[in-house]
Amino acid sequence: MLFFGEALGLRHDTACRPPLAGLHYPDSTDCSNLGLLHIGERPVTVLQYNFLGATGIEVSVIGLGCSGASRMGLAAGGTQSDAERLIHMGLDFGINVIDMSGVLSGTEPVVARAIQSRRNSIVLSTKIILGPLAWPFSETRTAARISSWIGAATSFVAGEGALIRRVENSLRLLGVEQIDIVSLHAVTPGQYPAALQRCRPILERLKRDGKIRAFGITEAFLRDPSHRMLSRAIGDGGFQTVMAGFNILNSSAGPAVFLPAMRREVGTIAMFAVRRMLKSPALFKEAVTEINRKRPDFPPISADGLLALMADHGVSGLTEAAHRYCRHESGADVVLTGTGDLQHLKQNVAACLAPPLPEPVRSAFREAFGSVDFATAN
Fold this sequence. Notes:
Elements: E1 2-4, E2 37-39, E3 42-44, E4 47-51, E5 58-60, E6 62-65, H1 80-92, E7 97-99, H2 102-105, H3 108-114, E8 123-128, H4 141-154, H5 160-174, E9 179-187, H6 192-208, E10 212-219, H7 228-236, E11 241-245, H8 253-263, E12 267-271, H9 281-294, H10 303-312, H11 318-327, E13 334-337, H12 342-353, H13 359-369
Parallel strand pairs: 6-7, 6-13, 7-8, 8-9, 9-10, 10-11, 11-12, 12-13
Antiparallel strand pairs: 1-4, 2-3, 4-5
């Protein structure tokens, strides 16, 4: 594990280690420009890095997700300038992974403006949908959403022309000659065979041509919460990276995806760390009630008991717990965090950089939800 900066209040034996080769970070002996993060009264300014499987790409353990519901605040009426400030704050904290979803997220032009002077320090990750090309509207978000839905519903997988066009479009919108990671987006079990046979050779060729550094595949977590597609993909060994849904309510990706991927040196990215049902105690209780309803033969889970246990051990809330739970999962190289609020980003980074959850809390979550493979927290 590689460390960035110097901990204030969470010191380790060594002083600041050198920045990673080929990447630009603030002065490794001065962390003042990172700002002071806090979990309660505990200050945290350490950032850590992993290698993404066998790709050779060095990644921050926290990635900035630009494709979630908030789309960096744009979905709620935020301005592009606001989104750029959010990206700059993440980069200043040492985050070097920025994840998008091509036209589907509509955030690539904003990212392009935000990174103009910092491209060499950033790992750009984007995704391409597999649905049909909706010419002449294929480069609009609405068309991309419809195309993606059709692809998932019918197991349709686009041909070479559409895939190359989508990668070229991302290169153009981002204003770069190479994208670090290009992944097939939200691939369903029905789409997977064609994605492996038809799309993987195209991605390999794009890599040889220098247009991408690595290629991966992401699951359709809302449709496939038990990771059937990714379990097969890791076994086949056809992709360099995988992206899986993982959170407190459904941690089945741990044994099903992350550990097998780690054994095969496949890079892993965790998404869905914090979704709607983990944003308040009331919503968490609703989610637990639904899980209990769907598992009548299991002992009922007490949401109140879990919340009280968190409070007893100094965990400030569900968002903190969710980030710490995911961040310290064995085999997860990067955990994506998404928000449109600067203060929330600061809190999310602080939570990811805090120590693992107290063992009684983590064990209680494992015991309660460890066998759940159908919830998404969405």
